[in-house]
Structure prediction request, 69 residues.
Amino acid sequence: MVYKNLKSKSVEELQKMIADLKAELFTLRFKNATGQLDQSHKIKDVRRSVAQCLTALKEKELESKKGAK
Prediction:
C-alpha cells in the first residue's frame, strides 16, 4: 500500500479500509494460532497497512481542525 494513495482518499474511505484491514488481521491471527497460516509475514504487512491508514486519517483530522480555526 502506497502512502501517497492513502492521502488522496476521503475520511470515510479510510475508515472503511481500516475496518477491513482489522478484520483481515483478526483472521490472519486466528489462522496463525491454529497453524493454518503459511506466510506469517502477512500479519506484519497488514499491521503496517493499518498504521499507515490511521496516520493518514489523523493527518486529515488535523488538517480539518487547522482549517476550522
